[in-house]
Structures are given as C-alpha cells and as structure tokens.
Write a structure and sequence with these properties.
Layout: E1 3-8, H1 14-26, E2 30-35, E3 41-43, E4 49-51, E5 54-55, E6 66-69, H2 75-80, H3 83-94, E7 98-102, H4 106-111, E8 119-120, E9 134-135, E10 140-143, E11 146-149, H5 155-167, H6 169-178
Parallel strand pairs: 1-2, 1-6, 2-5, 6-7, 7-11, 8-9
Antiparallel strand pairs: 3-4, 10-11
Helix pairs in contact: 1-5, 5-6
C-alpha cells in the first residue's frame, strides 16, 4: 500500500485537501494530513478548522511514496515558506518520487525550478508561476512523477489521478463511478 502525505498550512483550500484525503482513503491508500504549523489544528482559507493526523516533524519521509500540496491562500505561501517541507519536495523530485500540487500550489514547484520541460497546470491566471513548464489547460496533468491540477473544481479528478498512480486506471475509474463522478 502507498503512503501519502498531504500538507496543511494556515489558509489551505479545504476542498482541495479534504477531497484528496477522502478519495485516497476510499481507495485504501494510506494518507496522512500533516500540519506544518506546529499544532495539529489548522484553519483553512474559509475558516474551517481541521485536525491533522500528525506534525511535520513526525513524518518519516523515507516511508512516503507521494507528497501532496493543496492550494489556497495564504496556505500555498505558508507551505512554500516551510523550509523542511521544501527540502523534502526537492529531494523527492531529484529522486523522481511522486510530488503533486493543486490550484496555486503547482507554482511552488515552478518557483523551485522543478518543472523545467515538464507538462503542468495551475489555477487560471497563475500560469507564469510554472517556470520552464509546458503549461497545460487540462483539469489534471501528469508528467512522470509530477501531478498538477487547476483548482477546487478539479479536486476529484486530481484525487482520482493519485489513485490511478498507485491502484491503476481500472480502480480509479470504478471509484469515480461509485462516487457518481461523470457517470
């Protein structure tokens, strides 16, 4: 079974984070909500307080198969300011291990120089943040070990793309049908 970590910072987009968690757990994937704030309680960009599963210092990154960055403001900015997380994002990229981001968060990868020559998408209007990328306008873009998506409205296809990486297309398609997504 895959081990996934999704990182929560003050101001994260609740639907982008929680939809991914829900879909991954429905597929039987282990996904931890990880606070980068030093406390388990993290407030999203719309005032919804979520209790994370663990703190950043408790993550065993060598046991993780994917890192997920949700968007939202100022959540995306707060994630990018978390140097320990960014060190791991860069290390995962260098090792061609899975990294993924949705909404404004793919810009974090762009500013870190991780998207050179890669296909990627981002929230409309932020395409300039994808430094060096072949910018796509698709809901979700997969290029090797990097998954990106455009925003709250694409959280379900993004979550299903993550499921497909670890469980296969058939499982992702079946899960999509079970949740009445585009049937």
């Amino acid at each position: 079974m895959a081990n996934i970590a999704i990182f929560l910072a003050e101001g994260f987009e609740e639907i982008e984070a929680l939809t991914v968690v829900d879909i991954c757990r429905r597929a039987g994937l282990a996904i931890d909500m990880v606070s980068v704030m030093g406390a388990l309680q993290v407030t999203g960009s719309h005032g919804i307080e979520v209790k994370a599963d663990k703190l950043l210092d408790d993550v065993k990154f060598d046991e993780m198969d994917m890192l997920v960055l949700p968007g939202g403001m100022p959540g995306t900015t707060n994630l990018e300011k978390t140097e320990k997380l960014m060190e791991q994002v860069r290390a995962f990229d260098a090792a061609k291990r899975y990294i993924s981001a949705i909404c404004a968060a793919p810009g974090v990868f762009g500013r870190a120089g991780l998207l050179q020559g890669k296909k990627a998408c981002v929230f409309p209007g932020l395409e300039g943040e994808l430094k060096g990328a072949d910018v796509q306008m698709t809901e979700t873009t997969v290029d090797g070990h990097i998954l990106t998506s455009r925003g709250m409205g694409t959280a379900i296809p993004f979550g299903l793309a993550i499921v497909e990486r670890f469980c296969g297309k058939e499982t992702a398609d079946e899960l999509g049908k079970k949740i009445v997504f585009r049937v």
